[in-house]
Write a structure and sequence with these properties.
Layout: E1 3-7, H1 12-23, E2 27-32, E3 44-47, H2 50-57, E4 63-66, H3 78-92, E5 95-99, H4 121-140, E6 147-152, E7 169-171, H5 187-199, E8 206-211
Parallel strand pairs: 1-2, 1-4, 2-3, 4-5, 5-6, 6-8
Antiparallel strand pairs: 7-8
Helix pairs in contact: 1-5, 2-3, 3-4
């Protein structure tokens, strides 16, 4: 059993990861800016800003999952917040799993990342900030930090929650598509993949993608 701290633990991605980890009897601490609407039994909830809560909860963690979104009062603050969480994780010797976006992936080897192309204006700022958090890890992560940056499929999100199938594929920084050219993953199966990676660490200091 591991102690897993999930930042953004009441959001769509973080909430699914919290439920999956708790169902496997891990000790889970969910950090969020608001109280959970549907608390998961056995989960410890810490409400407050990243800056206030992280120094309290990261030192005792085995694994830290960063699943915040650059929206609302976090817009423009994600890089600095993750920089601090990554630093604390390195000091604590905790594995660090950071959730990014699909646009940080590449369509093919040696091709620019999706975020370097045309992103619709309503999503552009969020995509750029998410990519900046990947660059933070790739270029500035402490040498001792065991990190993995995870991008979900293109059709992933609360707008298409899907169902748990128990199946998923893990790729590198090249986007995964199915035989019909679709890129999807349900919230439950994405969480399944994350907790599987926590329990059986396979990827270290690299960018991976998860899809069907």
């Amino acid at each position: 059993m591991s102690t897993i701290v999930v930042f953004g633990g009441t959001g769509y991605t973080g909430g699914n990861i919290v439920r999956e980890a708790a169902s496997r009897d891990h000790q889970v601490i969910a950090v969020s800016r608001s109280e959970p609407q549907e608390p998961v039994p056995g989960v410890r909830y810490e409400v407050g800003t990243v800056e206030d809560v992280a120094p309290r909860v990261v030192p005792g963690a085995d694994v830290v999952v960063a699943a915040l979104s650059p929206r609302g009062d976090m817009a423009g603050r994600l890089v600095d917040a993750y920089d601090e969480v990554a630093r604390l994780s390195a000091t604590a010797g905790a594995r660090y799993v950071q959730i990014g976006g699909f646009s940080s992936l590449r369509p093919a080897p040696d091709q620019p990342r999706f975020v370097e192309g045309e992103i619709p204006e309503p999503y552009r700022a969020e995509a750029l900030e998410g990519e900046a958090t990947r660059v933070l890890l790739a270029e500035r992560a402490p040498d001792e930090l065991d990190w993995v940056f995870v991008s979900p499929a293109g059709g992933y999100g609360s707008f298409a929650p899907g169902e748990r199938t128990g199946a998923y594929r893990v790729g590198g920084e090249i986007a995964l598509f199915d035989a019909d050219g679709e890129s999807n993953i349900s919230g439950a199966d994405f969480a399944l993949a994350i907790v599987d990676e926590i329990e059986q660490p396979t990827h270290h200091r690299e960018h991976i993608g998860i899809a069907y």
